[in-house]
Amino acid sequence: xxxxxxxxxxxxxxxxxxxxxxxxxxxxxxxxxxxxxxxxxxxxxxxxxxxxxxxxxxxxxxxxxxxxxxxxxxxxxxxxxxxxxxxxxxxxxxxxxxxxxxxxxxxxxxxxxxxxxxxxxxxxxxxxxxxxxxxxxxxxxxxxxxxxxxxxxxxxxxxxxxxxxxxxxxxxxxxxxxxxxxxxxxx
Length: 187
Description:
Strand content: 5-15%
Number of domains: 2
Distance between the termini: 47 Å
CATH topology of the largest domain: Arc Repressor Mutant, subunit A
CATH superfamily of the largest domain: Cell wall hydrolase SleB, domain 1
Helix content: 40-55%
Shape: elongated
Largest sheet: 3 strands, antiparallel
Strand order of the largest sheet: 3-5-4
CATH architecture of the largest domain: Orthogonal Bundle
Number of strands: 5
Number of helices: 10
Order of helices and strands: EHHEHHHHHHHEHEE
């Protein structure tokens, strides 16, 4: 059976199409040989079969899904994922996104993405302006999408840190949930 196609309409994005067809931005990019998220009206895209590794991982732990208000919020989430977890495995990237989203649901943190990301002393890439100087990778956008869809590889963590580079005694006092790549995830 031939793979299904979709003709892109004006204003559509890979993120929207991934949600419509139950796949990921990363899978759409891979199936269509795309290096970034640019698509154009009239372009025909191959719609891949469900991305099995992602689907299997999604069933492990999910949180409530929260759709971002705007494409700008998706970009912010992808930026922090890229800045904090660029060299981490894919599950580690999703985990960073999940921590951000978990904070949105916790009353101890601001209830909007800007408030979580730009709270003083929370994220080093925001403090040193690396956050604004990077271009998020396709994988960072895909990880943001997976986190938004409810995949939480951390099981509800609110913090993450690299035990090799962190110096805060406070962060080391947090109960550890898991470690993925070089990041420890904690409550």
